[in-house]
Specification:
This protein is an alpha+beta fold. The protein is built from 11 helices and 12 strands. It folds into 3 domains: 156 residues, Beta-Lactamase, CATH 3.30.450.20; 131 residues; 161 residues, Histidine kinase-like ATPase, C-terminal domain (Heat Shock Protein 90), CATH 3.30.565.10. The chain starts with 7 loop residues before the first helix and ends in an 8-residue tail after the last strand. Bound molecules: adenosine-5'-triphosphate (ATP) and magnesium ion (MG).
Length: 503
């Protein structure tokens, strides 16, 4: 069915309106009809009375003028009788209260009635006076044989009015009763159907919006109560499953954390091993040189060149120690960031979109030597309660990665953040239009120590930190899609509401 759907309520109303209209019409028709029949009977019996009287008179006197007298008498006594006429078998008028008609011939239809010996009622034209009239014919008999017909022209205004009045009255009462009936029905439908359905609907809507659910209590008819119960059951089931899923997820996260921790420790050991090893070698070398220098000094064989050689070695070793210890301490600093700081102290309410703008503003110095353009589009901003440092680290890492990995020096490029919020979740999308990466790299970019820039200042911890921040601090998820030559896209989704809603 196309187009707009009609509500149940309106459909029922239309049905009721149609049936009551039909019923009222039938009632009016039946009543008017039976009333008309009684009126006809009354007319006929009135004429029969007159006919009997005239027949008796005629059989006694055999005088038409006597009949004329009786006609005049009856008509003068009854105002509703407009005309009384006696027709002969050939249709000629023998006597009439209207003297002008005497001797006239009448219409052939009357002859037809006469021959068939019938009592007939027909409507007469209203005429100039606009008064409704009926014409009644009855056979005029002598010794049981028809010898003519008596025609009675009667003012039927009273009966016509009565019938019309009765019809209107029944119709009005019918309409009033059916209106009452419809209002009552509407209220009943409201109570039984529409209101419970609306309650169900708003419950479904609030579940969809993720609002806390309380069982629907309907005091409605059995079928609807069953639907409500089924609905309650379904939502309870869903909530249970959701809770189980959350628990499973939490334990999975714990396990994953342990695995990640193990990997991290191995990575840390491996990474630190190099600078520390170099440092140890350098220190050993310096100790040997110092011993040599001491031996020379004590044996008195020291030359100027020995001193110069030792000074050069000491200088070189210290420099080496400095760089390698510096490297080690830098590594340790980034390891510390991996263990995401979960302190509540830095948490506050802030607008994510606005905050991203601020972070990008503070990164301006890094953009100076590049040809890159960065923008943020956040439509309707979302407010969250969290440590803004989380957002700042995520944004900084993503932007710095694009700068470092996606473009050649001086290459033109466009970096965009787009944030949208819907039904308690925010989606933050970050894109660059740089080199992109093959799938083998995309599969590992969130792993700790995964870098394609080892030895060029990359530790491979940046995106691992981002991953931890998103999943632990924001309680969301991050995904990366990329193709060589097509740039990269990072999609971050996180809840914007109270984080412990279901926990
Ligand atoms: N926008 C990007 N375009 C192309 N490659 C990227 C992009 N972002 C990350 N990568 C790739 O993912 C790898 C891992 O990134 P990650 O930030 O974890 O480490 P890193 O940048 O190499 O080192 P760190 O961030 O620790 O200094 C990078 O070495 C790089 O190969
Ligand atoms: Mg990085």
């Amino acid at each position: 069915m196309g187009g707009r759907r009609i509500s149940i309520q309106i459909k029922m109303m239309l049905l009721v309106a149609a049936t009551t209209t039909l019923m009222i019409s039938l009632l009016v028709y039946y009543n008017v009809n039976s009333l008309s029949n009684s009126v006809r009977e009354a007319y006929v019996s009135q004429l029969n009375g007159i006919t009997t009287a005239i027949n008796a008179e005629y059989e006694e006197s055999h005088s038409i003028s006597k009949i004329q007298q009786v006609f005049d008498y009856i008509a003068s006594k009854n105002q509703r009788i407009l005309r009384l006429t006696l027709h002969g078998m050939q249709g000629q008028v023998l006597a009439s209260t209207d003297r002008d008609l005497i001797g006239d011939l009448v219409t052939p239809e009357i002859l037809d009635y006469l021959r068939r010996d019938l009592t007939v009622i027909t409507r007469a034209e209203d005429g100039d006076d606009n008064v409704p009239k009926v014409r009644i014919y009855a056979p005029f008999k002598e010794d049981g044989n028809s010898i003519g017909a008596i025609e009675l022209l009667l003012n039927s205004k009273d009966e016509v009015d009565l019938i019309a009045k009765r019809g209107w009255w029944i119709a009005s009462v019918g309409v009033a009763v059916s209106l009452l009936y419809m209002v009552a029905l509407m209220l009943i439908i409201r109570r039984l159907l529409v209101r419970p359905l609306m309650n169900l609907r708003s419950a479904a809507v609030s579940v969809r919006q993720g609002l806390p659910f309380t069982n629907i209590e309907l005091n409605a008819s059995q079928e609807i109560n069953e639907v409500a119960e089924a609905f309650n059951g379904m939502v309870t089931q869903l909530e249970d499953r959701y809770r189980q899923l959350k628990q499973a997820q939490a334990s999975l996260v714990r396990q994953e954390k342990m695995v990640a921790l193990g990997q991290l420790v191995a990575g840390v050991a491996h990474e630190i091993n190099t600078p520390v090893g170099v440092g140890v070698t350098a220190a050993t070398y310096l100790r040997e040189q110092t011993k040599l220098f001491g031996d020379n000094f004590r044996s008195g064989t020291m030359k100027k060149s020995h001193l110069e050689q030792y000074l050069a070695a000491a200088q070189e070793t210290v420099e080496m120690l400095e760089t390698n210890l510096g490297r080690a301490s830098e590594l340790i600093r980034s390891f510390k960031q991996v263990a995401v700081d979960q302190s509540n102290e830095a948490k506050r309410n802030f607008q994510v979109g606005r905050y991203i703008e601020e972070v990008l503003f503070s990164l301006r110095p890094s953009f100076r030597q590049t040809n890159l353009d960065v923008s943020v589009d956040y439509g309707e901003d979302v407010e969250i309660y969290n440590d803004p440092g989380v957002i700042s680290q995520i944004v900084t890492n993503l932007v710095m990665n694009s700068m470092k990995h996606a473009y050649e020096p001086g290459e033109k490029g466009r970096l965009t953040f787009v944030m949208r919020a819907n039904a308690g979740w925010a989606t933050l999308e970050y894109r660059d239009d740089g080199k992109g990466m093959p799938q083998e790299i995309v599969d590992h970019i969130f792993d700790p120590f995964f870098t394609t820039k080892r030895g060029e200042g990359g530790t491979g911890l940046g995106l691992h930190i981002v991953y931890n921040l998103v999943s632990q601090s924001l309680r969301g998820n991050i995904e990366c899609t990329s193709q060589v030559g097509q740039g990269s896209k990072f999609t971050i989704q996180f809840p914007t509401g109270q984080e412990d809603e279901y926990a």
